[in-house]
Model the fold of this input.
Amino acid sequence: MVQKIDNIGIVITCYNRPHLLKKTLDDLNSTDYTNEINRGCVIIIDDSSTNDETIKLVVDFKLSFSENWELIKIIHNKNKQMYNSLREGFDLLVANEYTNLCNLDSDVLLKSNWLLKLIRLYKMFPDTIISGFNFRLPSVIADECKFYKDGYLLKQGTGGINFLFSKETYYKYVRDAFNNKLQWDWKVSDNLAKDNKMFVITKPSVIQHNVDISDKDNISNGFNIVAIDFE
Done:
């Protein structure tokens, strides 16, 4: 049985691409309900989308997988970039006394048990960062996986598509990493490595980057990061 945690806050940032955002929000509402969390919150931050359909998706969205969770929507009137929006969302959660913080990109696919899997590992490893996304660039042969265990693996790095961590870990390893802008997740990896810590990642992946890796535009722009074991 999954051990209960007091609270969790989830931040989703988005900018245009409504077809991808819709799938992410649909999958979020298909999350297996759990009463193992006393208090929950989802924050959706639209970073000044120029696409009206995206804004409408955010405005109209209702959280249905749990009636007890709080839902906060923020729509920027000026683009602040994803890394600043993430910091804004996490800071807001902390200000509202959420001590367990999670992020999801707006272009992911979710297994219905994704949250339960992350919580299970988080209770086992509360002092590092948990992820449901075991990435590998298609051009890279042999990944960075160091240790395999039953239901999880340890890695020195993974993409910032999904993290789960404590408030203490946020201030120690994550918050200042946003100063590295688009490379913030790699800075998080560096920060963990300095303390000889590793990411703990579900095996198999319960989160997938919803991109077409055969799309040349995606590959040339660095958006071809995909989970290698999403089933």
